[in-house]
Amino acid sequence: MEGMTLSSDDSTLGPEQAAQLAARLDDVLARLDAAAEGTGRDSREITLLLATKTRRPAEIALAVQLLRERGRTVAVGENRAQEIAKHSDPLLADNEVPRHFIGRLQTNKARDVVAFAEMIHSVDREGIADALERRAEMAGLSREVLVQVNTSGEESKGGFAPTLEALAPIVERLRASDVLRPAGLMTIGANTTDAAAVRESLHLLRSLRDEVRERLGAEELVELSMGMSGDLEIAVEEGATIVRLGSAIFGARPA
């Protein structure tokens, strides 16, 4: 991937595009490092999940390469099942980067998602857990999953209610599975410019994770997938172990 140049088949990046991506990436890492340092955390222990919706293999491959060169923990996350196929591109197929699925999942896409992703972030209802389990059993695969929680209470968002009573049954159901391994919780922060409201919605996820671990003895629930390009500092300060980054690294999506 070194020395990428723009080609007519749009499979590579020119020097200017590569430089712009690298500059955005370094800006993000500076933000991440400052937030982690302020709370006594090691930013290199936080997984940077590249949100790859609409992104080309060349962009994704370069971002993975640059993050690895900088000693960061990196994964790629797709949120539309119809875009999974692009990850078989030669630029991505053999780079051994962990693959996650981060979008709302339809039951009829469970087979494709199970085949693609080692970790699935969007278990937002019982039926999805059932579909994923069936497909994982059929494929002979084991997958890590995160329980999605609607910590902001916004009707436009999926996820379980942010209470122990709502979360305990799905966590216990997943813990009983032979093929699905609950690894933590996920949320999408409050959709507002009010930083206090965003912080409250992310702090709640950590509090719920800690409560579930204590009350259910579920010590395996470690991950907190929260925070995106606009609120990554708050997410890191509130304990995120995985932050989902798209436009901050790749730039605005094409219209």
Overview of this structure, please?
The protein has 255 residues and is an alpha/beta fold. The chain has one domain: TIM Barrel, CATH 3.20.20. 42% of the residues lie in helices and 15% in strands. It is built from 9 helices and 8 strands. Strands 7-6-5-4-3-2-1-8 form an 8-stranded parallel β-sheet. Helix 7 links the parallel strand 6 and strand 7. The longest helix is centred in the N-terminal third of the chain and has 24 residues, at 15-38. The model is unreliable at 1-10 (pLDDT under 50).
Could you provide a short overview of the structure?
With 255 residues, the protein is an alpha/beta fold. Helix content is 42%, strand content 15%. The two termini are 27 Å apart.
* Order of strands in the sheet with most strands: 7-6-5-4-3-2-1-8
Low-confidence stretches: 1-10
Figure out the total of helices: 9
Can you tell me the CATH superfamily? Alanine racemase
Strand content: 15-25%
CATH architecture: Alpha-Beta Barrel
Total individual domains: 1
| Gyration radius over CA | 18 Å
**Class by helix and strand content?**
alpha/beta
Oligomeric nature of the chains: single chain
Specify the overall morphology. Answer: globular
Outline the fold blueprint.
Elements: H1 15-38, E1 47-51, H2 57-69, E2 73-78, H3 90-93, E3 99-101, H4 110-116, E4 119-123, H5 126-139, E5 143-148, H6 164-175, E6 180-186, H7 195-216, E7 223-225, H8 232-237, E8 242-245, H9 247-250
Parallel strand pairs: 1-2, 1-8, 2-3, 3-4, 4-5, 5-6, 6-7
Protein traits:
globular, TIM Barrel, 255 residues, disordered N terminus, single chain, 9 helices, alpha/beta
